[in-house]
Amino acid sequence: TRFDSKRRVCLLLPGPTEALLDIGSGLFRFSAFSAAVQRIASLLPLQVDLIKIIKNCKCKSGRELVLASLAIELAFVELLKELNLSLDYTAGMSIGELSAGYANGRINFEQA
Questions:
Q1: pTM of the predicted model as reported, rounded to 2 decimal places
Q2: Could you tell me if residue 46 is inside a domain?
Q3: Which residue of 32, 33, 37, 58 is 20 to 30 Å from 83, comparing CA positions?
């Protein structure tokens, strides 16, 4: 058999985790990521300062962790789209399922 040299790209998206906050805080330097987080933040109640939560890597509640994790995942997908990176496979666990659904086109940004 011949080896298929085409590399496959798989994106696995987790459920809420504080590790995502560390990742997200470092991705703000990319305009596509930053713009997506700002877009999501504009949809949330004013008492949830999503940008501050992600940049400071600190959540006061489980609710904030879920919102921040989902925002980071969706914004990361936006960054991948900006880079024209096509995904062969997507999978998610917990809220990661929403992000995976957005990444593979099954739901749109607002639905996620």
A1: 0.90
A2: yes
A3: 58
